[in-house]
Design goal:
By secondary structure, this protein is of the alpha+beta class. Helices cover 29% and strands 28% of the residues. The strands form two sheets. A nine-stranded mixed beta sheet has the order 9-10-12-11-13-14-15-17-16, sandwiched between helices. An eight-stranded antiparallel barrel has the order 1-2-3-4-5-6-7-8. Helix 5 packs across helix 7.
Length: 431
Amino acid sequence: MRKTLLFAAVMAIMAATAQAQGIAGTWHGQLNLQVMKLNLVFHFSKEKCTLDSPDQGAKGIAGEIKELDEKKVDAAFPSIGAAFSGDLKDGKIIGTFRQMGRELPLTLTAGEFVRLRPQTPQPPYPYETREVTFTNAEAKATLAGTLTLPVGFDSSQAGKHPVVLMVTGSGLQDRDETLFDHRPFAVIADYLARHGIASLRYDDRGFAQSTGDVSQATTLDFSRDAEAGIRYLQSLKEFSKVGILGHSEGGSIAFMLGARQMADFVVTLAAPGIKGDTLLVEQTNALLRLSGQPATMTLKQMRLTMFLQETNPWYQFFTEYDPSGDIAATRCPVFALNGSLDMQVLAESNLNAIYNLQFTIHNSQSNHQPSKFNHQNSTINLQNSKFKIYPGLNHLFQHAKTGATTEYANIEETISEEVLSDIAKWINSLR
């Protein structure tokens, strides 16, 4: 009873404090759009206001204050055709959000919007890290990154631990591959360090602390940055094996380096196994089905769309790139992973393509036929290589309901513990 009364008293004090402070300040709330819930953050002051949409990666959308006092706010955001008005009651702003002719109820709570990300590593860490740089001289690009050393690492015992270079997916990203406050590469690096494996993750060229021109850069150019990272790790002469781990586009880069015989092993998370334009058709149809629409996109229609729209060098390369040659030329051990709910790089078609190409390498003199992935057969081992589809995981390897990209932000899990465990166990098995 005392705890209940104390809690009620605290809540009453908080409500009274908010009422006394008025509306100026930071508030957050969640719009119910039926198909998804959208978090919004408002920053109100007498002079101006701004709006953040963290689920969409939008910050600082400029607004206009039409009315603001201790109990009422009315604001407009012309650039997105939106407005919000509400009244302060019991410590919350009860109001209406308007956009494109729609009116939706929206209740705001005082303070910043904070996402729960329980897997994000928190100091103190039981391992050592080094802030390092390496250079792709040809491209005049300097890549800045974090070298994470395993627990108990001793530089005098060279060759005891393996190391993996981590390469992000498409779009400029930081070394943690940060997305919606998820930091998957930081989580992976932390897990590997606790299981005897070093890692180097770096900011993409021209992003965060890395330098270099990205205006004309393609996946092939980014692979040269990764190659510079591999050469840097090899030059340290501190590790037993130097491998590469790539997510999505980073998986394509991993196979590019595998084909150049640059890596001792390759780990790919949701790597494309089919040509870019075909992958886009599959992706589009998967998203259409997910939204309840007919999946009618054809390769001819996709090619027409690509022809009509203005394209940049990266996009042109992506759509024309067929990874099969690089996958077939990769002779080192491979661990290729996909999630069954991946709506961006569909697991069955892409992983089967990767496996079949690898099977051909290892069985060129055999009449054996490759297996196929299905619901009963989600893991296939091939000599030192492994291919696995994880049931219920999305493109980010989170446990998901549908795999829709709109779920990413609202899932607390950053990456499946099973995936982390499997990667560490497989790399350590190669020693």
